[in-house]
Amino acid sequence: MHLDILGIGGTFMGGIALLAREAGYTVSGVDAAVYPPMSTLLAEQGIAIREGYAPRPPSLVPDCVLVGNALSRGNPALEQVLDQRLLYTSGPQWLAEEVMRERWVLAVTGTHGKTTTSSLLAWILEYAGLSPGFLIGGVPGNFGYSARLGSGDLFVIEGDEYDTAFFDKRSKFIHFRPRTVVINNLEFDHADIFPDLAAIQRQFHYLIRTVPSTGLIIANGDDQTITDTLALGCWTPVIRFGTGVNNDWRLEAIDGPNARATLTGKGQNRAITLPLPGEHNARNILAALLAAQHTGVTLDQGIEALRHFRGVRRRLERRGIVGGVELYDDFAHHPTAIAATIAALRGRHQGRILAVLEPRSNTMRLGVHRNTLAASLQQADRVFVYRPRTLEWNLEDAFAPLLGERALITEDIECLIDYITAAAQIGDAVLVMSNGAFENIHERLLVALSNQRQHDR
């Protein structure tokens, strides 16, 4: 059977392409642009990709078309599917029906931390010998790919609240019918599809309605919005985690520089070594341990697995070090995630932090977070901001508290690289944050820093 995937370059649809290929389907796809790591993963599997949404060539007649949620009416490739009355469906629906229908689904949800928590959970289950399937919006270092079928009963899925397709405006995770659900946190995001936080809460409530009474919801008990969402109706046991005294499982004595924390709950007390820095990652780790425990993995097994966790690409990933300057890459694009990422790096890096930001997401483009953006970067020593051409608000106004000695804004990528290279000193960490390819700035910065150091000699 031949699947053609519209929007194959996204992490979710690209992951579906990998699963379908592994399951024996012939897979092709199209996207406006495809960049690493997804482009690399698809190429390694020999999946043919057409760039640009021109109508499909007459020789290519798929059995079914999977439509990504980035496509809307008027897209030439989509209009061709409708005009020719081809069989089509959404990625989440195909995944639910063809891959996850008879499996124990563990869905990791929330505004932040989904990719990291999903990666941790998949690795803990793998380490315990359960061979889970998974589809994750990133590339876990322990696996080297974002999706696989697995040979066990378990399937870990990153539960995104974004909408499903042009014809189905429910959140993707409504399709997944999970038995285990993690809700990490809940804030307003995706302003291009949700009018307010209440609309997002409603989608999470619909998800909660699908969880069986024999399942489990693992919820951040410190997040009032999650508590309010559960109060809309819940028919499933809930375990609450966090730092507050009323949680079932608590994080105590989180020591960032020494990467240690204490877990307390159910009459147990465990000291653990954290494989990732920062309090937000300590929460992600606890959530993954509890989700794995629901499947039968003991807490001791889970803690042992953490010792061998290799992180996730684009989640505070060190891309290189040149002349004493370290370069990190992170997917952070929401003020809460930006502040948490800088704080995590601050906890383990003694030198200056040069934060480089591309406010690229749809929510950023609309200016929803402009009043909190400068504050989220306060812990950085220097701030460099790239102005996307699609931005609909004034960056200078938003960054007024930082402009001058600490912050610089430019819409020229070459100038941005020159400014960063000139500012970087031995012992600095350059932290690049974007939810896109950012004009391949990471590799270009490494080259520029190398050239600068050679010139200085």
Walk me through the topology.
Blueprint: E1 2-6, H1 11-22, E2 26-31, H2 38-44, E3 48-51, E4 64-67, H3 76-83, E5 88-90, H4 91-98, E6 104-109, H5 114-127, E7 133-135, E8 147-148, E9 154-158, E10 163-165, E11 168-171, E12 180-183, H6 197-209, E13 216-220, H7 224-230, E14 238-242, E15 249-255, E16 260-265, E17 268-273, H8 279-294, H9 299-306, E18 317-322, E19 325-330, H10 335-348, E20 353-357, H11 362-366, H12 370-376, E21 382-386, H13 395-398, E22 407-410, H14 413-423, E23 429-433, H15 441-456
Parallel strand pairs: 1-2, 1-4, 2-3, 4-5, 6-9, 6-12, 7-9, 12-13, 13-14, 14-15, 19-23, 20-21, 20-23, 21-22
Antiparallel strand pairs: 7-8, 10-11, 15-16, 16-17, 18-19
Helix pairs in contact: 5-8, 5-9, 6-7, 8-9, 10-12, 14-15
Q: Strand sequence of the main sheet, in spatial order?
A: 8-7-9-6-12-13-14-15-16-17
CATH superfamily of the largest domain: Mur-like, catalytic domain
Say what the CATH topology of the largest domain is: UDP-N-acetylmuramoyl-L-alanine:D-glutamate ligase
Helical residues, percent: 25-40%
Estimate nothing, just give the exact number of structural domains. 3
Cα(first) to Cα(last) distance is: 60 Å
Tally of DSSP β-strands:
23
